[in-house]
Amino acid sequence: MNSATEILELGPVVPVVVFTDTEHAVPAAQALLRGGIRTIEVTLRTPVALPALERIAAEVPDIVVGAGTITEPGQAHEAAEAGARYLVTPGCTERLLDDIDDTGLPALPGVSTASEALRLAERGAQALKFFPAEPSGGAAYLKSLTGPLPNLRFCPTGGITADNAPSYLSLPNVDCIGGSWLTPGSALAAGDWDHVEALARQAAELG
Ligand code: 3PG
């Protein structure tokens, strides 16, 4: 993974996962892979997130593991050390962006307005996360950015489901979307890997 645009090419859906138990990490990643999904974004929102990410990087090498919810300086380096191959943020500060640049990893920095997108473009970003997609104006807002910002690519995330996914994936400035619906907490807790695989298969087919 050398560039942020390569993240967008991993498939139509980036599963955004919140782990509460490290033991769920490997079977969840394997279920996603069996369903045809080639990447997993582990959100740094729980104490087990980094060890979960580390397990996936070490034990499921065929899936491209990224770290999401990078919100504080230091987390980018921790995620890189744990084996993350890309980084995702919900929003940006200069300090956070500098920290991410230091890791050398490709990233999808989060934006929700045209001004934020322009600021990131000035720093050389080509691909951005649009977050939180639905509350920020959804597919209609993103579509309206194609005219003034034709060179920017977006991965919308936040409030996206299998039902509204096609309205985003049909936009000219969207290659993939992100969402947590592939890995519901109830399925992870129950160890229902067949369900995760089925949701992954349905998502992979959105492409
Ligand atoms: C994220 O961090 O990208 C979002 O929390 C995922 O949003 P969702 O749970 O609405 O899919």
UniProtKB/TrEMBL annotation:
The entry's keywords: Carbohydrate metabolism, Lyase, Schiff base
EC number in record: 4.1.2.14
Record has Lyase as a keyword: yes
Pfam families in alphabetical order: Aldolase
Keyword Lyase belongs to the record: yes
Catalytic activity: 2-dehydro-3-deoxy-6-phospho-D-gluconate = D-glyceraldehyde 3-phosphate + pyruvate
Record pathway: Carbohydrate acid metabolism; 2-dehydro-3-deoxy-D-gluconate degradation; D-glyceraldehyde 3-phosphate and pyruvate from 2-dehydro-3-deoxy-D-gluconate: step 2/2
GO molecular function: 2-dehydro-3-deoxy-phosphogluconate aldolase activity
Protein family according to the UniProt entry: Belongs to the KHG/KDPG aldolase family.
Quaternary organization: Homotrimer.
Database matches in PANTHER family: 2-DEHYDRO-3-DEOXY-6-PHOSPHOGALACTONATE ALDOLASE-RELATED, 2-KETO-3-DEOXY-6-PHOSPHOGLUCONATE ALDOLASE
Identification of the protein by name: 2-dehydro-3-deoxy-phosphogluconate aldolase
Taxonomic lineage of the native organism: Bacteria, Bacillati, Actinomycetota, Actinomycetes, Actinomycetes incertae sedis
